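Need tokens for this chain, all 451 residues.
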Amino acid sequence: MTKRKMKIFGMAMTGVLALSLSACGGGGTTNNAAGGSGSDPAASGGDSASGEKVTITFQNIYPDASDPKNKMMKKIVDQYQKDNPNVTIELDSLNTDQQKLKLKTQAASKEVPDITVVNPAAQMQPFVDADLFAPLNDMVEENGLKDTFQSGILDYYTFDNNLYALPDGNNIGVVYYNKKLMQEGGVEVPTTFEEMVAAVKTLKEKGIQPMVIGEKDSWTGSFLFMNILLRTNGGPGFLQEVLDGKKTFEDPAYVEAITAFQQLVDAGAFQDGATSFDYNAGENLFKTGTAAMYFMGSWATGGIETAEVSKDGNVGVFQFPTVGGKGNPDEFMLAPGSAFAISKDSKHLEETKDFLNYFMLNFPKEAFDVKGAVGIAQNVDGDFKAAGYSEMAMNVLDLFKKVKGGDLAFDNTMNPATTQVHLSGTQSLFVEKKDPAAVAKELQAAYEENK
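Here are the structure tokens for all 451 residues:
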């Protein structure tokens, strides 16, 4: 990916969040081309009635049966199979890191499943360069599918004017908190990082788990770390400046971010053995009411608001605070979602396109109905408040309106080799104390070697 294209991606994301996602807040309705077909899933059914028996492998990252998106996925799949009895949709449901690893193995052997999951920008680039995916330009023009997506979001999955994947989300990083546990611990919602560290220590002393994370999936720690860097750098653009040769990873802002992150770990913020908990296991600790705070992308809202912990309005949400007096809380970690791509070598390419077209046309309504529509990449035809979305979910939607900019995740910006060193280095901070300057130096060396 060229540096120029990376800049375009960054500017586009801020616009998408500021303009498109804000339209979803406040309980109003937005124009949604999927509204009509979504109201009757069979209405946009496929043309797979040739009688030939077809099996389509649908790799996805919705393995948690308690998550609204898992239920939504199965509902759409079941309906499609009823409408097309000759088609079997075989689900390959994995957590995020498992799926990434499996896809790398499959890509190396040119055995990509019919539908798989990719991440935007830099993470997609190697797979596109390897010519593994089918262009979807023609497919999205059918039945108005392209018009269901928020303006600008498809740019992250477009290379050389070819669209290769359809995203399920468009999110920001937020901190969820358990009101009851915070009150029991005698701590307030922190407005600075220093207050957050102090709150962690106080909660720990009172026997309350301060925060949780699923750091076996190493992107989770990186996502949190990058929000700290967004603050210590005084605003967005650090990684872009590295790419442009204006900064290095040994810059004081990066070293300060490592130092602050380590302060959080050393204060006892996270559960014991955090690196042995995958994303779902870490999140479930919060959803079952065992921790006071949880930093994650707003995609977690649906699963949290339908969990027992949210009963009686017990969960709130707040923006990540300033660090050392630096940064603007209205600048967020920006997360264009994972996306569905189709193998160029699918044995049933047309049937696979037909199913994915059907799935995405019905995605907004079905996600909305199961309380899973906060932070999806498509416009939503519905009144969130009237539909019974929680006060917490409405607060998350309000945060979308406040977005003044932000940064993409490390792995959506840097090349895979440099990213891996960053992920491993950040993960190591959970298990041993490191010299921040040495961690930064190691990462800079990896970047120089792989750029």
